[in-house]
Amino acid sequence: MTIKLYNTLTREVEPLTPLRKEYVAMYSCGPTVYNYVHIGNLRAFITTDVIQRVLKAIGGYDVRWVMNITNIDDKIIRDATAGSAAWLEEMGIPSSDAKQNLRAFTRFYEDEFLKDIVSVGLDINHFYKMPRATEYIGEMQELIRAITQNKLAYISDRSVYFDVTAYEKSHAYGRLFQIDRENFREGVRIDADEYDRESVSDFALWKGKKPGEPFWEFEIEGQQLPGRPGWHIECSAMSHALLGLPIDVHTGGVDLRFPHHEDELAQCCGGYGVKEQASFWVHNEHLEVEGKKMSKSLGNFLTLRDLVKQGIDPIDFRFALLFAHYRSKLNFTFESLKAASASRKRIQEFIWDVMSVSDGASTDGMISERESVPAASFQYLIKAAEALADDVHTPRALAELNTFVGSVSVGELSAHSASAILNELKIFNDVFGAWTFSPRTAIEVPAEIVLLAEKRWEARKMKNWSESDRLRDEIANRGWTVMDGKDSYELEPR
RNA sequence: GGUCCCGUGGUAGAGUGGCUAUACAGAGCUCUGCAAAAGCUCGUACAUCGGUUCAAAUCCGGUCGGGACCUCCA
């Protein structure tokens, strides 16, 4: 199925035609590892994961997906120094070597990041590469030299800056974001750092070292400029090094359109001489918490840890996000999370019910069984797939999927049809990553509960309703629900 | 100051000129000794004011409200 995506470059939903025969090349801006990621960050990673999965499961493509780890930047340097309040015991003892501290500090948060994305349903095996910025310093320096040779950069005060004015003479700048430079907001700090640049729109490609900071040697134009890379350069260099330019899809949060992506694009065009860095630029909207942007001062700043502490299953969080389109702002509330959780369980129960009818015939990955799915219901699955192909419209796909579930009477299903349905649902789960197709795990019931239940069953057989109800209440008080069947009962945790 | 987005039922969230999702919660019913689970049914929502139109939640304008971005925030 052809996949359509909204492209920030054209402001339109367009069909994706991969540039290469073998695979779709996709690059996603990853985390800056100086803290735990918050749930807003996670939306970006879950979105990009789902896009990647749609390309595979619905588009039928192979995908080479790269997500970078930014392990060098101003905030990291600020926090990763000896004596910093942000330094945690788990990171070990800070040394006098700035680079070593940087490494210990960033590896810690990198590991935490990986744990977090895995728990919200990302599969590390889906990544073609997860490059660390500091491992591509050489490639970045190459690119900076190329840009400088093309007269699109200048050296000032031992740093290197991209010259936007020069670039604009031969290229369009502001393709992803309309910039109104005449009306920069008054009072906002224009110069975010202490480096010298000729124009406020210029940005640093390379920042000269300051005392105590980690640095790399850099020779350019016959000068030695020890320092570190600017923020935007890493994504340009790594997407080029690992995937080759242009790539098919570049993703990130809306806030990255400018300046980060705009500058990335300019660096690629100005340095590598390509017309495009990516065919598609895809940006996810932000997540809000209780109707407000997440911020520490509002006290609505949440990490995955905060949710887990409240007993929330990270997969429920993932699922809750998919109830909204990735380009809409999403209002995260605990109530909607509960709704998503119940909704996810309902489909899980359906899957297990169908599994119990299925003949277990595995036709994994084959769609030849489709005719076995009741035709009236099957159309909903088609619609669900179409919704996913149409700019990854997960809420519409879920609506169709729910309608599908409601349209199937599991009891009337043949074993063969049940298997066919399972195969179809597996394809959707390749996108949603929200369900399991392993058998229901039996839950260990404590012996005392079993004893009470047995006593109750006896009482019930004797039609001693009052005793039976009393025992049920007692079992309920201990956290279990009894469900009576025809000639047996089941216990479930409440 | 500039640029832009949004306001849909109790909640979340689709729809973007007529057919009006979906989920959760809630109500009623069926089933059940009573329950639970499940199934069925239901609510008649589109900020507000005006305009365009045979017809507007959907297009246009005003108002009110919320939000984002404007140099290193996903």
What does this structure look like?
This protein is α/β, with parallel strands linked by helices and 494 residues long. It has three domains: 4-183 and 207-284, HUPs (Rossmann fold, 3-Layer(aba) Sandwich); 314-432, no CATH class; 447-493. The protein is built from 15 helices and 17 strands. A hairpin with a 2-residue loop joins β5 (153-156) and β6 (159-162). α9 (314-321) packs across α10 and α11 runs antiparallel to α12 (394-407). The chain is elongated.
End-to-end separation in angstroms reads 43 Å
According to DSSP, the number of beta strands is 17
Major sheet details = 4 strands, parallel
pLDDT < 50 stretches = 185-194, 364-369
CATH superfamily of the largest domain: HUPs
Strand content: 5-15%
As for the CATH topology of the largest domain, it is Rossmann fold
Continuous helix count = 15
The CATH first-level class of the largest domain comes to Alpha Beta
Helix content: 40-55%
Instruction: Trace the largest sheet across and list its strands.
Output: 4-3-11-12
What is the overall pLDDT average?
87
Tell me, what's the shape? elongated
The CATH architecture classification of the largest domain is: 3-Layer(aba) Sandwich
Rounded radius of gyration (Å):
27 Å
Counted up, domains total: 3
- Strand-pairing-aware structural class: alpha/beta
